[in-house]
Amino acid sequence: MASLFDSPDLLVALVGSSFILPIVFLIWIRNTERWGREPWWALLKSFSWGAVFSVIVAVVVSLIFLGILQEIVPLYVFLAERFANPETIVGVLIVAPLVEEAAKAIGVMAGRRHTEVRTDGLLYGAASGLGFSATENLFYGLATLLAYGASASFVVILFRSFSSSLLHASSTAATGYGLAGRWLTGLSSAFLPYYLLAVLMHATFNFLASFGELYSDRWGETSYLFGFVATVAFAVIAVTVVRYKLASQRPAAAR
Known about the structure:
The chain has one domain (2-52, 105-254). 83% of the residues lie in helices and 0% in strands. It is built from 13 helices and no strands. The model has no long low-confidence stretch (mean pLDDT 89).
């Protein structure tokens, strides 16, 4: 790590590459809305909250949640009978989706006072998710840098930007849509279905991303190729649905 801080240009490049594409995606998603676009400063506030506070909460709660689940022996026995690496299943398919989607809702909260229709929640959710993904990109980039070098770290960040970042934007957009419904209607039940949808989207994406690790003993390198293609396709389809919902908003309902 010392060599990294001895190369400030490299550190700046890593931070920039981690955040630039998520910000570009935020511009792209915001511009999908035809009428009554949300103020930039409010969206960037959600982005920042997602990048900082949501990440901190997700890390702390995930560690606690993992510690609790590790004490449930029958769960690990059940998973070990079906998967070579039960820790991956618990961490990636259970803990991460449940905790991270809840934590990213913190970023959505930054847009509450500007939310006038439910589709506004899609934008603040996407902003929070993209902020979260930018910080996550940086963490993965740093880990890859230390293990494999600078070139590999930039490749990882680029791939995650076109897969994980789009997934985080889409899943948290669903959470934001639910939160907006709760704020506008006063019904707590308006939030839960969309939070669960976000968790399901996240878990599905993580399963596809882990496909190679989970099934390489059966299908070899083909499992990694399938996982690579499937994760990108899933993320692109998910963000396309979000953009379609924004684009189809009627002007009379927009403001």
